Amino acid sequence: MKIESALRQAKALIMTAAMVGVLPVSVRAADLPTEDRSSTQLRLLDGEWRDGLRESGIGIDAWWTQFYQGAIAGEGSRDWQYGGKGDVFLTLDGGRLGLWQGLSVAAHAEFLYGDDANALGNGVLLPVNTALAFPHLGGYDEDLSIVITQALNERVAVSVGKFNMFDVLAKTPLLGGGGTDTFMNLGLAAPVTGVTPPYLLGANITIKTNPVILTAFVYDPRNAQDDDVLENPFSEGVTGMLSATVPYRLGGKSGFLGAKAIYSNKRGTDLSEIPALILPGESETFIDDKKGSWFFSASFQQYLVQNPDNPQEGWGIFGQIAVSDGNPNPLEWSALLGFGGTSFLPERNFDRWGIGYFRYSLSSDLRDGLDTLGIDLRDEQGIEVFYSLAVTPWFSLTGDVQTVEPVISDNATAVTTSLRTKIRF
Questions:
Q1: Is 163 in contact with 157 (CB distance < 8 Å)?
Q2: Is 18's pLDDT higher than 60?
Q3: Which of 27, 60, 26, 36 is nearest to 313 (CA)?
Q4: Which residues have a Cβ under 8 Å from the Cβ of 357 and sit 6 or more positions away?
Q5: Range of the domain at 217
Q6: Which of 2, 115, 136, 379 is the most exposed place for a label (fewest CB within 10 A)?
Q7: Distance of alpha carbon 218 from alpha carbon 321, whole angstroms
Q8: CA angle 249, 254, 257 (to 5 degrees)
Q9: Segments of 14-171 assigned E as strands
Q10: Is residue 146 classed exposed, middle or buried when 0-12, 13-18 and 19+ CB atoms within 10 A define those classes?
Q11: How far is Cα 37 from Cα 34, in angstroms, rounded to an integer?
């Protein structure tokens, strides 16, 4: 029971301290334009009605993603789980709607149903299904994010609102997908920082210079699923993030180098005193906290194969290494490395594939504290492989395998297999 309690405490610390932010927010992969695929239909319900709305300044997209997932090795349950997620996106173009140029509004509503394989009792800390983990881990099965953006000119844009950070990462070339298109494990799909909530209230400014793209972000350090964040913003502190991205070309193929620094002045639990949270009695009243937490990462991406006529097609290598304070941030360092992109098979331009490795090291203070209770934690590391077959451009079928060495040292290696389908309406 002590081990289970410790794992819950560690998981709660990481999930509430939060999650996402490996690659620079200013890097985006453009949607494939319909006119470049005149002989195909990218969405099930494409037609003149959608083109007419777009011309009027209204964009509508919807996805339905289903998962059938279960463990075939490791501790815990072998029961397979079925669940799904619906995503609806609405974008408004202020200029076309008769307001003013440069204004845009983006809204994302998401809905979960069914079960997931994120709590099978196998000692795994990071969710093996990112798409079904959020917004569920915040206590809800639905969420709505709204971001208002004003482009001041071609180089400068300001955004404010409630951000879904998975949307930011989902648009990153090669690695992006947010759990519904590419990698499913949180360690790869939306890598953990410990200081960036999955849903946040804040504002950013992006400045495109030559050769660097700079982004400054200020946000409430708490998860914006909490109503108090909207009612009393920044009441518990503020977090600032600076990122720099340097796009480049190597051998005629695109890539980028990125760096990100984050600092939060929010107070957090002193992890060296974690045993007092688990021991019986009134010891909790003597728990101290610490002010301030930081995170730094360096990342890269390089296409190795790229279609010169359509830069969105191709595959390459990506990676990141990150360090943080380790107290009160429950993470100390992390690393990931992988390959992926569109298919290497001829005439399979809409297929996607990937293979990635990740490793996350928990705070030394947290581990030392739990060791006094006889609970031995280790780095959580794993490998994920997937191939997504585009049955049609709007319907994909994905097979996924994850092998994870759980954070609990006594637990056996967990192997999870998954079948994922996605329909783009």
A1: no
A2: no
A3: 36
A4: 336, 337, 338, 381, 382, 383
A5: 2-424
A6: 2
A7: 23
A8: 80
A9: 58-73, 81-93, 103-114, 142-151, 156-164
A10: middle
A11: 5
Neighbours of 139 (CB within 10 A): 9
In tens, the pLDDT along 74-110 reads 999 999 999 999 999 999 999 999 999 999 999 999 9
pLDDT mean over 378-382: 96
Residue 381 has pLDDT above 70, yes or no: yes
Phi and psi (nearest 5°) for 179?
95, -10
pLDDT one-digit tens code per residue, 236-284: 999 999 999 999 999 999 999 999 999 999 988 878 777 666 655 544 4
Residue 285 one-letter amino acid: T
> What CATH code is carried by the domain that includes residue 20?
2.40.160.180
Count other C-beta atoms under 10 Å from residue 56's C-beta. Answer: 13
Contacts of 70 (CB under 8 A, 6+ apart): 78, 79, 80, 81, 117, 120, 416, 417
Alpha-carbon distance of 242 to 223, in angstroms, equals 19
Assign 385 to helix, strand or coil. strand
Judged against a pLDDT cut of 90, whether residue 320 lies above it is answered with yes
pLDDT for 115 equals: 96
Mean of per-residue pLDDT scores for the chain: 88
Residue type, 378: R
Residue 162: burial class (beta carbons within 10 Å; 0-12, 13-18, 19+): buried
Instruction: Give the three-state DSSP class for 68.
Output: strand
Distances, alpha carbon 294 to alpha carbons 185, 242, 275, 333, in Å:
24, 12, 24, 11
* Partners of residue 254 on adjacent β-strands: 249
Pairwise CA distance, residues 325 & 332, whole Å: 6
pTM of the model: 0.88
Overall number of domains in the chain: 1
Crossing angle for the helix pair 2-17 and 364-371, to the nearest 10 degrees: 160
- What pLDDT digit, counting tens, does each position of 400-421 carry? 999 999 999 889 999 999 999 9
Which of 144 and 177 is assigned the larger pLDDT?
144
